[in-house]
Amino acid sequence: MSKYKILIADDHAMVRDGVKNLVSKNAELQVVGEAENGKQAIELFDTLQPDLMILDISMPDMNGMEVSKEILAKNPGANIVVLSMYEDGDYISRCIEYGVKGYVIKNESGSELDYAINSVLQGKNYFSRHVQDVIFRKYTESVSKKKPKDDLVKLTQREIEIVKLIADGLTSQQMADKLFISPRTVETHRANLMKKLSVKNAVELIKKAQQLELI
């Protein structure tokens, strides 16, 4: 039975030795090459066509993200697992965007890398629990930043009363009589509401107020 070919790319010899030691414990895996910089990693990948590459991000010549981007652009089905000290959400997101199938932080246990290798070779993605937490935090922050400004609209109690009366079809005079204020004050409130909710007419005003659950 042929073994899965593993290529290791890391500029630290001690890290490569540690990964080789881990890989050697699995009888189905075989390290076929080692790269100590980005350009060498691409050259060895093209030459050896490994079943999986374990790739560091911080390397000379080309960093791991550049390496993964170039390799996956030419080989969309390539199996790349990033093993890096970087746990920044932007680094992880870019790697995922390029098509990296696994990501493990270097200070995590060896079993995490083992799980990643086996999962990816089985056609799955594997991101360690810590990496998943980083991805989730980045996602929630992104959603929060993209929230429409409308969600932050705050209406006064009087403005809410005006909106409800507009929805009931009352005229400015009828609203003025009901609220014991002048028609001019009603019109001022209406204008402020249009501005706050970024709408142009009563129909849009009612619709937006309903969307924001103001009425």
Automatic annotation (TrEMBL):
Which residues are in the Response regulatory domain? Answer: 5-121
The family database entries (SUPFAM superfamilies) matched by this protein are listed as: C-terminal effector domain of the bipartite response regulators (SSF46894), CheY-like (SSF52172)
Q: Which residues carry this modification: 4-aspartylphosphate?
A: D56
Superkingdom per UniProt: Bacteria
The keyword Disulfide bond appears for this protein: no
The protein's UniProt keywords, in alphabetical order, are:
DNA-binding, Phosphoprotein, Transcription, Transcription regulation
Pfam families with a match to the protein in the record: GerE, Response_reg
Task: List the InterPro entries.
Answer: CheY-like_superfamily (IPR011006), NreC/VraR/RcsB-like_REC (IPR058245), Sig_transdc_resp-reg_C-effctor (IPR016032), Sig_transdc_resp-reg_receiver (IPR001789), Tscrpt_reg_LuxR_C (IPR000792), WalR-like (IPR039420)
Question: For the HTH luxR-type domain, which residue ranges apply?
Answer: 148-213
Q: What is this protein called?
A: Response regulator transcription factor
Q: Which organism is it from?
A: Chryseosolibacter indicus
Which lineage ranks, top first, belong to the organism behind this chain? Bacteria, Pseudomonadati, Bacteroidota, Cytophagia, Cytophagales
